[in-house]
Amino acid sequence: MAISPPAPLAGAPLSDRLAATQSSPVRELLQIAMRPEIISLAGGLPAPDTFDVPGLRAAFDEVLAGPDAIRALQYSTTEGDPALRDRLAAFMAKRGLEVAGDDLLITTGSQQALGLIASALLNQGDVVLVEDPTYLAALQAFQLADLRAVAVPSDDFGPDPDALLEIARREGAKVAYLIPTFQNPTGRTMPHERRAAIAEAAAQAGLWLVEDDPYSALRLEGEDADLLAAYAPERTIVIQTLSKVLSPGLRIGYVRAPQALRGPLAVAKQAADLHTSTIAQLAAERWLATHDLSDHIAALAAHYRPRRDALLDGLREHLPAGTKLTEPEGGLFIWVELPEGHDAEAILPRALDRGVAFVPGKYFYAGEAPRGTLRVSFATATPEELREGAARLGAACAG
Ligand SMILES: Cc1ncc(COP(=O)(O)O)c(C=O)c1O
């Protein structure tokens, strides 16, 4: 259900913070995109046909039928279930970072981690540096915490490290929020040299880096990159999630922070929701104990790869000459930059009339937004639908 923008209540005005926070326009667009006649390139939800329903059902059954049933239904520790943390740490450690279960804090989705970081590290009015464009709901979380998101100019390889340093110094920023791998919305990935340069700039500016990493596990081709946190472990908070590799409904995210921040983040989490659902944590742990996550991810990649290829082929064939596309090696998104003179917002109603939905790029910018950008996702449609969706989008661009 779409959430209406907050309106002042007679006699009970909303907080300034909430009144200033925009309801995501994408949620409303997604409602329209769900109509059966529309091919949706708009969403970012993982493909429902990849959910392991029998496996998760068995995991919940095992928890509730066994000796942990009472524990699963009880309050639990703020940091999270130790066995789950051990398993997630082993997964995170594959990406060049030393991490043990005790280093992790389980959060209620990675989205919660953004709010916890804001409340533990930043004061009202503080600046958080962001890529331009960036993840829309991170901008919302920062708005709700009354922070000022300041855009760092970015190119095809991520934010410009010199600009990051200069803007951090100018604005007195303490935190930079980055999505280094298969970024939402662009699909782009920072190469090794850029990660090293960003880590160096952060050290010079005294910045905490927040590495939001929901997509790196969804690699469709090529070699895994080390986490940005591997380049600057003492100043990077890395956030991962089971949402894109197992199920977003579980709401299980996990955070590895530098030692000094672990206590403060746990206090913020305690104040926010005491702990993440015990039963969801124990079921996730049972699933991970009885399945090979890497095999499951390989099956996800086999599912998404032909979809990415079909959408890329269709976009190359049907979008106007001079269009620039990202060609991501993973994740769920492709970013489109239409040639001069095209306006994605003006194209959207024509596209919906023709039966295809996408998200205009302007929603993802903290700074000034170019008119001709848009985000498309290959996550939920079939390859045939994706080719047809690209053809409809091309027709809508033509007028
Ligand atoms: C960049 C980014 N961060 C965080 C999230 C939120 O994920 P979670 O389900 O773990 O809260 C998403 C979901 O789309 C995302 O794209």
UniProtKB/TrEMBL annotation:
Keywords, in A-Z order: Aminotransferase, Pyridoxal phosphate, Transferase
Q: Which SUPFAM superfamilies match?
A: PLP-dependent transferases
**Swiss-Prot/TrEMBL GO biological process terms:** alpha-amino acid metabolic process
Q: Which cofactor does it need?
A: pyridoxal 5'-phosphate
Q: Name one Pfam family in it.
A: Aminotran_1_2
Superkingdom of this entry's organism? Bacteria
| Segments traversing the membrane | none
Residue ranges constituting the Aminotransferase class I/classII large domain according to the UniProt record: 72-393
* Subunit note: Homodimer.
This chain's protein is named 2-aminoadipate transaminase
